[in-house]
Amino acid sequence: MPEAFSRRRRSPVKEILQAPELLQLADADGPEGSDRFPYREPVTSVGDLLDAQTAAAMASAGAFLVPTLAAYDAIERRGEQIGMPAVSRHKNREVLESGQQAVELARAAGVSIGFGTDLMGLLEDEQLNGPRLQAEADGTWTALASATSVNAALIGRPDLGRVAEGCTADLLILGRNIRDDPSVVWSPDSQRTIVQDGRVIADSRAPR
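The structure corresponding to this sequence follows.
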């Protein structure tokens, strides 16, 4: 929680966050973040500056880590171009350097790791870099699980993120085997067929 919140003012905020129907979000920036937002209930955290102590607290509470490595990488390369102030670019460089380590610490502690990008606006065209960066940090197959079954568990939707009877038929069909060439997932030139709820909504193989 922001430093501006006094302990007296934090109490009603924490009461609201403990409502069972709400998905809690937190920014686990090292031990200070862990102390200010105790992980007594499952929450979702971006975990910019995660350390081992905070990772252990998250694992104990069943919290999820959702890395946004693509945003840090894009801002590092294009921050000045899109008008980001120097102080913000400096802060971004700090989290860029610690982002992959945070994934490693979370994995070692047994934290469930989802997938996100935090990209929008002028940086939205960087989306495909997200899977690549997370695969570099956590391995190709675990990164794919993070983007599918783990994210589905995070939002409480067991019908998503799996290819199984009774699940929603949301599918990404690629032109090559990921086992042979993982870059097929993030290459902009890959052949892709996208199926949403059983209907083909995009097919790069179709004649134009």
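Strands lie at 24-26, 43-45, 64-65, 112-113, 171-174, 192-196, 199-203.
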